[in-house]
Amino acid sequence: MADTTALFRRFPTLAERLPWLRLGSGVTPVERVQALPADLWVKRDDLTGPTYGGNKLRKLEFLLADARRRGAGRLITGGGFGSHHVLATTVYGTRAGFPITAVLYPQQVTPHVREVLHAIHGLGADLRYCPHMVMLPASLRLARLARHGDSPYAVPPGGSSPVGALGYVSAGLELVEQVSAGTMPPPDHVHVAAGTLGTAAGLAIGFALGRLETRVVGVKIVPDYVANDRALGRLLRATLALLADVGLGNDLPSADAVAAGIELRSGYLGDGYGRPTPAGTAALERFSALGLGLDPTYTAKTAAAVLDAAASTPGVHLFWHTLSAAMPIVPEGAALPERFRRRVEP
């Protein structure tokens, strides 16, 4: 069971019931942040893959396997212009043999957003324009209708479906293994960016299954209409129902019990999704000096919350780092489609 995922190490029978595709490098390290006075640790999910990593890869290990099992002929997903989820789906979906349709809405343009958008296009995704974040669900439905003949598989934004959340149920159990092995002390607080909520929901379920008493702090990096307790509850219930369907009914906590261990923390979004904040910029510079690269949309805002919490709340804090440490190599190719180029090129 060495070359597998922690969910299957904990519950071996699930390997026969849940499709899974190895994409990443396996267990990611946890490291103490020595340069800071607080008891602060980092879970290095920036290192999930050697050529492109981050948190989306864990979700895609279950999502792409599910798409293959269902006989899909195309993957359709969406996000902002600088979506690392869309980039990860393009990188690993094309490697798995799927053509990709990417439905993308505008966001604050930074050099990093521009780099991600060029990578998505350069790696072969078919780009479709969506005018605004709130229109993404409708735009995704239209894209699926347009590609109906391809037997499309909808990969939800952020990979945050019950199937995708299994990647972070497994990641939570992976941390349980590391704590049990003495790699780090049991964390009192685990901080993670909260967008589409699949990472936070999956971690909390994994911790509950592994009997690790810790609090998941999801730092909101999107508006409240995306990240909220009601959406979190729906995802928790659906993920637990999926696990019950594949045979874990007697081992599962209630959705309410899991939700009680999650806090969605506001106050770090700033002026909106993808817009840098002074606190995020300061955190980015501080962590960059320690060799940890952050982005202004997700991880810098989360890191700002981590630094504030570690300074004000005693205990062991773990920052779950979700941005890939590497960008994929992109072939030189055609320019962006005009509708995108005029919105991002200087």
Characteristics:
single chain, 346 residues, alpha/beta, globular
Mean pLDDT over all positions = 95
Q: What gap, in angstroms, lies between the N and C termini?
A: 50 Å
Largest sheet: 6 strands, mixed
| DSSP strand tally | 10
Structural class: alpha/beta
Order of helices and strands: HEEHEHEHEHEHEHEHHEHHEH
State Rg: 19 Å
The number of helical segments is 12
Helix content: 40-55%
The outline comes out as globular
Spatially, the strands of the biggest sheet line up as: 1-2-10-7-8-9
How much of the polypeptide forms β-strand, as a percent range? 5-15%
Instruction: Extract low-pLDDT stretches.
Output: none
Structural notes for this entry:
- With 346 residues, the chain is α/β, with parallel strands linked by helices.
- Helix content is 41%, strand content 14%.
- It has twelve helices and ten strands.
- The strands form two sheets. The protein has a six-stranded mixed sheet with strand order 1-2-10-7-8-9, sandwiched between helices. A four-stranded parallel sheet has the order 5-4-3-6.
- β3 (74-80), α3 (84-95) and β4 (100-105) form a beta-alpha-beta unit.
- The radius of gyration is 19 Å and the shape is globular.
- The N and C termini lie far apart (50 Å).
Give a summary of the structure in a few sentences.
This protein has 346 residues and is an alpha/beta fold. The chain is 41% helix and 14% strand.
Question: What does the secondary structure layout of this molecule look like, with pairings?
Answer:
Layout: H1 6-10, E1 30-32, E2 40-44, H2 56-69, E3 74-80, H3 84-95, E4 100-105, H4 111-122, E5 126-129, H5 136-146, E6 152-154, H6 162-180, E7 189-194, H7 198-209, E8 215-220, H8 229-248, H9 255-259, E9 262-265, H10 278-288, H11 299-312, E10 317-321, H12 338-344
Parallel strand pairs: 2-10, 3-4, 3-6, 4-5, 7-8, 7-10, 8-9
Antiparallel strand pairs: 1-2
